[in-house]
Amino acid sequence: MNCRRHVLLPPSRSATAPRQPGWARSLPALGLGFRPSLGLGLVPSGTRSSEHAPKRRAPGFTLVEIVITLSIVAMLIAMALGSTITLSHTRALEEPMSKVQEFAKKARNLAILEQRPYMVEIMPHSVALFSLVSTSGATAGVFGAAEAAAPKGRLDFYEFDPDVVLSVRRWRATEFAPPERQIWVFERSGLCEPLAVRAESVNGFIEVSFNALDAHVEDKASEIR
Fold first, then answer.
1. Dihedral angle at the C-alpha atoms of 48, 51, 52, 56, nearest 10 degrees?
2. Contact 135, 147 (CB under 8 A)
3. From CA 130, how far away is CA 149, in angstroms rounded?
4. Domains (ranges, CATH) in the chain?
5. How do residues 158-207 score in pLDDT, each as one tens digit?
6. What is the spatial distance between Cα 209 and Cα 197, in angstroms, rounded to a whole number?
7. Residue 167 — φ and ψ, nearest 5°?
8. What is the pTM (predicted TM-score) of this model?
């Protein structure tokens, strides 16, 4: 009695993988640096397949990056806010001082043009421009007292922020006088008393010195807090 033995052989390579074209199998032998893929394309040698490639991080920002960005933005806002506050304080002090300069220039020009004295009245919270008439038959001199002449008519007036106070240092004085009514007389020749005006508030001060020839600014100092 004859017995036949059946041996199971493993499936051949051709049964499990698609057969590659001959030109694809010859590439490694030619040293071209490509290896055939399971599909129809070629994969460079040493290149990992997409299955083994490391996964990319999802787009977005980490917590550290967000904190750093917010810190920089906060610093920029604080700097801008500080500059804005300083500019506002400076403007509040510059405004009354610019009016004093404007009225002084007007008084000098009118005194020369009309050949009669004019005066600038400096109050703690306002500035005014007047023409003068003598009360004793003579015009007030450059350094004459206020009682020697009386204002004839107010030509201009400016009232500023009550938080800002004006004070005056007269000629030859070493300190600024307490805030009160001060008269600055301009003679027919345009000459005036050299004096200094100070605009002050809780946020700082601006001090301007005027010369006696043309009432232009001779010196300026400021401190803004």
1. 100
2. yes
3. 11
4. 20-44 (no CATH), 91-224 (3.55.40.10)
5. 998 888 999 999 988 989 988 889 999 999 888 999 999 999 998 899 99
6. 6
7. -135, 160
8. 0.61
